[in-house]
Amino acid sequence: KAGVTQTPRYLIKTRGQQVTLSCSPISGHRSVSWYQQTPGQGLQFLFEYFSETQRNKGNFPGRFSGRQFSNSRSEMNVSTLELGDSALYLCASSPIQSASSPLHFGNGTRLTVT
Amino acid sequence: DQQVKQNSPSLSVQEGRISILNCDYTNSMFDYFLWYKKYPAEGPTFLISISSIKDKNEDGRFTVFLNKSAKHLSLHIVPSQPGDSAVYFCAATSPAGGTSYGKLTFGQGTILTVHP
């Protein structure tokens, strides 16, 4: 079974631009979560989707948004990029929301904002 | 406000010895805890978890201990192997409090180095 796939792996953008990151969960997984990893803040929760509905949102500004499609694939968008948005963005999926189904993470998209 | 803390940024042990990684939390609503391992250029990989109704959970070389009164958990790796060298994150959530399993609060991580 293929793992969580995130594209692209690396991205360089300029301040003020917008970016869209893509995540394909493991086949059969309906729950997708997004996390931001930075050296200073560590791993921080962005949002979670289940069956195309946003179930939870972290403490990030409205410039960060996401969505989930009917095939469970998810995208996240960051508008008006700032230098501080440079980070590793991780997507994780699970089949259902339960203790028996821990999150499986992808290898992330490394975003650099210049 | 860091609700999950891993106070040791790094830990170095000899192959074959025990590795003990520690994690403290402040939010008493947390009732489900996990440990993840992360290699460079890869995403975190799930290792082991524990519910607050237990105080110990074992899986092979990995054992997690939970002390609810102290709000402390630890991960024991016995015996440690060079391939265990990675960054270890503890994470917490509160399903009983209405927070889903997909919303985890992570510690800052501990870099474990196992020397041959």
Short description:
The complex is a heterodimer of chains A (114) and B (116). Chain A has 114 residues and is mostly beta strands.
Describe the structure.
Chain A is an all-beta fold and 114 residues long. Helix content of chain A is 0%, strand content 53%. Chain A has no helices and eleven strands. In chain A, the strands form two sheets. In chain A, strands 2, 4, 5, 6, 9, 10 and 11 form a seven-stranded mixed beta sheet that branches. In chain A, a hairpin with a 3-residue loop joins strand 4 and strand 5. Chain A is globular and about 40 Å long. The model of chain A has no long low-confidence stretch (mean pLDDT 93). Chain B is 0% helix and 52% strand. Chain B has 116 residues and is mainly β. Chain B is built from no helices and eleven strands. Chain B is globular and about 45 Å long. In chain B, strand 6 and strand 7 form a beta hairpin. The mean pLDDT of chain B is 94. In chain B, the strands form two sheets. In chain B, strands 2, 4, 5, 9, 10 and 11 form a six-stranded mixed beta sheet that branches. At the A-B interface, strand 4, strand 5, strand 9 and strand 10 of A face strand 4, strand 5 and strand 10 of B.
Compute the average pLDDT of chain B: 94
**Cα radius of gyration of chain B in angstroms:** 14 Å
Multimerization status: heterodimer
- SS content category of chain A: mainly beta
Give me the number of helical elements of chain B.
0
Shape label of chain A: globular
Sheet of most strands of chain A: 7 strands, mixed
For the secondary structure, the number of strands of chain B is 11
Give helix % range of chain B. under 10%
Uncertain residue segments of chain B:
none
Structural class of chain B: mainly beta
Q: What is the N-to-C order of secondary-structure elements of chain A (H for helix, E for strand)?
A: EEEEEEEEEEE
What is the general shape of chain B?
globular
The secondary-structure element order of chain B is: EEEEEEEEEEE
* Poorly predicted spans of chain A: none
